[in-house]
């Protein structure tokens, strides 16, 4: 039976987590509501799709907080001197806490699985059916369910594959390394009865890796450079737009003058006239938007905050470069010191100096700076992913499906946006592990190393030295985070993630070069497009 003192110590961490969740949850929900409402089209807004998008985005942000919580819990079990706290001295107690964290991962990841394969597809196809004329509610639901069954079948197939896929390590590898790997697998273990769910989540994480390479890598370059460059002058853009209007009108008058005497225009001239008239409409709409932007107080406030934007942009680009260097060093460490490609490039601890990992370890003595930093890193990936999707739009290979624009984004695009963010969040944990492997594996844990005391008067006395937990630590002295075990349950996924990190570095460098070569954005970037209708101005220009 636990003493009252141990019980209070044990529950203090739980109370701290509960208080943090009560504080963070309303903030997340408020942010999701504002973000979705900012981009949502006023003409095509629909209650079901709005609620779905807000909830899916909230699930993505809440799931991104799992890793900092996991690291905090394993670190909270020990004192700074490397000894376990009274309530965590028992292996059974530690096992219960570790299982609770693991089941927390599976619970939230199961919700993501439900959103990706059932909820979001159903709402998407339900709204698509609404575009057809003379379709009642029952037919909408029926048709949406019919299409959603295909996603459900894919989910079932993944669960079945995960239930029977072998977890044993491939033969012919370094025995010492594989003894450690087998120990970790047994600890996470099939005894929990959830390998099928783990395989499905890992498959979605693989898709999330592609989204990270596409959107997050580009967002990490375009977001800071847009802040540094700023936007073009509204007055200059209006003057330039007026000159373009005059030039197009002059060309139209020149073409129309050919048929003053009643002669019809040639097919080539008629085609050119139609193009010029379409271009004139776009320029006139652009002029109306520029006029609104010039009167908008937000534009004036943005100009006043220009120095702060430059400082923030420089900070973001330095962070992006730090992440890229840390990821390169981590991947190089795996290439040089891991057990090989068929082991998933698993390494224990770090062999090369990783700047981000060292920074997190250096912040450990000052509570809670290291937890704040790991939380900021997590949110940085989410925000840069949002920026990447916002600037690129939603693509399927070379086909652009949807644009993400303020107050003019279709409900289907918002659902795609939230689904992509859900997949990105799944891969974020592996990205952060790659950036700071030792810290993500052990947190701020330390352990005692007993060594004999030298000297004639010491006798058989021993002294304890505190060390940061690493691969050389005894198994019963350092607790591995559940996130690390979850990421390495299937070695072949880890291998793919490893090569995905190299692709991410390449995509970031390409995106950085493209962003540097591009000029300043227009103050109404993305608001006026040639394929927009004139009616779309009604929801923006007042």
Automatic annotation (TrEMBL):
<keyword id="KW-0170">Cobalt</keyword>
<feature type="transmembrane region" description="Helical">
    <location>
        <begin position="413"/>
        <end position="433"/>
    </location>
</feature>
<dbReference type="GO" id="GO:0031419">
    <property type="term" value="F:cobalamin binding"/>
</dbReference>
<feature type="transmembrane region" description="Helical">
    <location>
        <begin position="310"/>
        <end position="329"/>
    </location>
</feature>
<keyword id="KW-0175">Coiled coil</keyword>
<feature type="transmembrane region" description="Helical">
    <location>
        <begin position="371"/>
        <end position="401"/>
    </location>
</feature>
<feature type="transmembrane region" description="Helical">
    <location>
        <begin position="147"/>
        <end position="167"/>
    </location>
</feature>
<feature type="transmembrane region" description="Helical">
    <location>
        <begin position="196"/>
        <end position="218"/>
    </location>
</feature>
<dbReference type="GO" id="GO:0061462">
    <property type="term" value="P:protein localization to lysosome"/>
</dbReference>
<keyword id="KW-1133">Transmembrane helix</keyword>
<feature type="transmembrane region" description="Helical">
    <location>
        <begin position="48"/>
        <end position="69"/>
    </location>
</feature>
<keyword id="KW-0813">Transport</keyword>
<dbReference type="InterPro" id="IPR006876">
    <property type="entry name" value="LMBR1-like_membr_prot"/>
</dbReference>
<dbReference type="GO" id="GO:0005765">
    <property type="term" value="C:lysosomal membrane"/>
</dbReference>
<keyword id="KW-0472">Membrane</keyword>
<feature type="transmembrane region" description="Helical">
    <location>
        <begin position="490"/>
        <end position="514"/>
    </location>
</feature>
<keyword id="KW-0458">Lysosome</keyword>
<feature type="coiled-coil region">
    <location>
        <begin position="238"/>
        <end position="293"/>
    </location>
</feature>
<keyword id="KW-0812">Transmembrane</keyword>
<feature type="transmembrane region" description="Helical">
    <location>
        <begin position="16"/>
        <end position="36"/>
    </location>
</feature>
<dbReference type="Pfam" id="PF04791">
    <property type="entry name" value="LMBR1"/>
</dbReference>
<keyword id="KW-0846">Cobalamin</keyword>
<dbReference type="InterPro" id="IPR050854">
    <property type="entry name" value="LMBD1_LysCbl_Transport"/>
</dbReference>
<feature type="transmembrane region" description="Helical">
    <location>
        <begin position="106"/>
        <end position="127"/>
    </location>
</feature>
<comment type="similarity">
    <text>Belongs to the LIMR family. LMBRD1 subfamily.</text>
</comment>
<protein>
    <recommendedName>
        <fullName>Lysosomal cobalamin transport escort protein LMBD1</fullName>
    </recommendedName>
</protein>
